[in-house]
Design goal:
By secondary structure, this protein is an alpha/beta fold. 35% of the residues lie in helices and 10% in strands.
Length: 232
């Protein structure tokens, strides 16, 4: 029979040399605790790797690898038209302009050369009777020899009946005098001599215009050539 001291030492020796069977305090002799720890660490690394991959995927979808096309938003039609008009007016000066007067198909109206009227610059002789019935006396009021005959010949070529005479006196102002009813024929005479209607005067006293009144009996128009040379 062991003494108390020997029994205590025996229990102590058994406790040191033999493993404890209480679960959870010490690892099992087959290494199961180490294996479970390793498996947990592996699972943690796998979860971290998956999380990192998911993060990169989300970044790729929203940034670099995502849809880079701009978002299209609805625009007010009025503002769009205003921008279009501003662009057309402020862009190139050579931009085509819609011609409202053109055809509906955009074709330019054709020009008929045959119906195009030409402007005639030839002065129209204002007269109401045949020129061969109009008698014109051309009086030289300048004193230049042959001047009345020269201008008288021009009027004769135009169709008037003419006579070259001397003026009663020299004068500066040229004028075309006419008897009542011959205003249009007098204007025609002025045009033939290169003047306008401003030189027309009613002939109140024809005998005072020429040196020899007997020469102008039955005449209708009296041209007095002055030194201003308006009538040649």
């Amino acid at each position: 029979m062991l003494s108390g001291e020997d029994a205590a030492e025996r229990r102590l020796d058994k406790g040191v040399s033999g493993p404890m069977t209480t679960h959870g305090r010490y690892a099992a002799s087959d290494g199961s605790f180490a294996q479970s720890t390793s498996n947990a660490a592996t699972r943690g690394l796998v979860l971290i790797a998956v999380a990192v991959l998911i993060g990169f995927f989300l970044l790729w979808q929203g940034g670099v690898g995502g849809d880079s096309s701009p978002e299209i938003t609805a625009t007010d039609d009025a503002s769009a038209d205003a921008d279009a008009d501003e662009t057309a007016s402020g862009g190139s000066d050579d931009a085509p302009i819609d011609d409202a007067s053109g055809d509906a198909d955009g074709d330019e109206p054709a020009v008929d050369d045959e119906t195009t009227e030409t402007t005639d610059t030839t002065p129209v002789t204002p007269t109401t009777r045949p020129l061969g019935e109009v008698k014109v006396a051309v009086a030289n009021g300048v004193g230049v020899s042959g001047l009345a005959g020269q201008q008288s010949e021009l009027l004769k070529t135009a169709g008037f009946v003419t006579l070259a005479v001397n003026a009663k006196q020299n004068t500066e102002l040229s004028a075309v005098y006419y008897v009542d009813g011959y205003a249009l024929e007098a204007e025609a005479v002025a045009l033939e001599l290169g003047a306008t209607g401003a030189v027309l005067r009613p002939a109140t006293s024809p005998d005072d215009l020429v040196a020899d009144p007997t020469q102008i009996e039955g005449f209708h128009i009296f041209v007095v050539l002055g030194s201003d040379r308006v009538l040649g």
